[in-house]
Amino acid sequence: GQQLNQSPQSMFIQEGEDVSMNCTSSSIFNTWLWYKQDPGEGPVLLIALYKAGELTSNGRLTAQFGITRKDSFLNISASIPSDVGIYFCAGRLPSKKLVFGKGTKLTVNP
Amino acid sequence: GAVVSQHPSRVICKSGTSVKIECRSLDFQATTMFWYRQFPKQSLMLMATSNEGSKATYEQGVEKDKFLINHASLTLSTLTVTSAHPEDSSFYICSAPRDNSYEQYFGPGTRLTVT
Lengths: 110, 115
What we know:
The complex is a heterodimer.
Chain A: E1 4-7, E2 10-14, E3 19-25, E4 31-37, E5 44-49, E6 55-58, E7 61-65, E8 71-76, E9 85-92, E10 98-100, E11 104-109
Chain B: E1 4-7, E2 10-13, E3 19-25, E4 32-38, E5 44-51, E6 57-58, E7 67-73, E8 76-81, E9 90-97, E10 104-106, E11 110-114
Parallel strand pairs in B: 2-11
Antiparallel strand pairs in B: 1-3, 3-8, 4-5, 4-9, 5-6, 7-8, 9-10, 9-11
């Protein structure tokens, strides 16, 4: 079945550093979504991307939808301790189902 | 912003009993909702698609008679775990795509423990 390749699997950074993670797919998706999940909570939508080549920001977060619609990256600038969590990318199918990456676990050291 | 709620957030039940979990979209309509199961340190596993006004569709390997889904209205879907066993213990999460939008929102999850 379809799946997204998300990397890296985990990151350990110092507070204040910038972070970058990405997802690639063998299939085209018309919508890419980035989520953050804290332990014991449901995923929270961070950014939604609709157009190929689109660059969208949400505060310190910036995400881009690849021009081929087969990839996307998420950047976090000037990380803070509350950025800790697991970040998932997801591609949306026409059925509205989501195909997820396996997640990037981010640890921020104060 | 859009919000999806789940109730209960945590439930402990005895083996053999049934448990109902509710998923509500609080400020938007959702003709379709999804139910997921998540194991520790893993991504979300789609169980079924809940469709308002019609039967749910289940992913391969998910027992429809064990995981009963009812989409009673445009804002409410319920998942009932019937005759629960310890192996059903997990974190269950619902999601709701906002109608006429590409955005999809998740509930906070329900931690089910079957003793």
